[in-house]
Design goal:
It is globular, with a radius of gyration of 25 Å. By secondary structure, the protein is of the alpha+beta class.
Amino acid sequence: MYCIRFASSLMPRPTLHSYFTLPPMYLQDLKHVWRDTWLYVQEHIVFIMIIISLLLLASLLPHLTFTARVNVDIVNGKEAKPHSRPYMVSLQKDKKHICGGFLISDEFVMTAAHCWKGYPEILTVEVGAHDLWKSEVSYHVEVKSYISHPHYTFCSQWNDIMLLRLQEKVKLNDYVNWISLPKEGDVSGDTLCSVAGWGRLRTKGPTSNRLMEANTTTINHEECQRKWGSKYFQASQMICAYGHGGSCLGDSGGPLVCGNTAVGVTSFVSVIRCNAPERPNVYTKISAYLPWIHQFIRNIK
């Protein structure tokens, strides 16, 4: 969803009166008057259309280079060992995969806030999945509550995190389990981590029905800030990472896993090219939201 604002023109708005106010003249000159007036009107129509086109282009330019809510998945990765990531879930609308997510308890899923467009959209969660085309051990769970961060908006990349409370608690086993969240603190640069998801295997490529994974390495905040700019990257609430493999179109909401801990939520990438070194993938920093997460879960229980 794009938030487009039209800049107002500094020129006075032409009126119908200004186009057709004519000086007194003789009847025999009327033919020339209409011709000259019509040419005058045509010139102004063309000028106005050019201005409108330029304003539209200017309003869309940020979205031609960056995107805050691109659905992302895995490029240059490999198929994950079946059920080696039992915390991974597929968020689905009308039985179609739209985003990734991960279990943080037997009752809650964490994902990106932009994965849910708001009521009346209804999502279901498929747990225990590896191949989305085969439901050997996987099953669907309804969502009871959608809890986006209170400061998240569709017009910003910030606070792109959401909790889903499931209608029923999942049964933990070898195929379904939750992943630990980080303690307070930050992930240092040059830390080897991994990402996983279903979706496109390259920028304009096909999606994968099987869970894919790839290694990626975190980048220090200063470099992320330089490559994205302060309008898009905020070190206090974001992490960026890059590697041979990484995220692409199709699976926002999946975890950035360092060690055995989910430290980030896949948020956005460059819309021009997936996993681009000049625009490293960006993840919502989970540790920045621990007070909100714990408070909400504590209030529920």
